[in-house]
Prior knowledge:
Blueprint: H1 7-24, H2 29-36, H3 40-49, H4 54-63, H5 68-73
Helix pairs in contact: 1-3, 2-3
Protein name: XRE family transcriptional regulator
InterPro entries: Cro/C1-type_HTH (IPR001387), Lambda_DNA-bd_dom_sf (IPR010982)
Amino acid sequence: xxxxxxxxxxxxxxxxxxxxxxxxxxxxQEQIGDLMGIGEQSYKKHEQRGSLPADLFEIFALxxxxxxxxxxxxxxxxxxxxxxxxxxxxxPRRSRRSPQQPTGSDGGPTQAH
Length: 113
């Protein structure tokens, strides 16, 4: 059985992808920091640590012109995804309660005549 990847391994790989993507675009850490609106020192820490906050993830991918999925996973091909069903598309659950008694205009039970 495959072992679950560790957080430190994920961060090392993410740091490498961030570096590779930035260098392929011919950008310095200062330039990409400016493009992302965070400055060189902040970007440098993210790249060294292999940590990229969610609010900067898409900005980084756009700046380096890479697919965000690749930045996150290192994979170019996306797996087939099973479409989630909305609650309105699922079968209604059957109630285990007994059906409600019909009520009359006064709110009480109706009486058979």
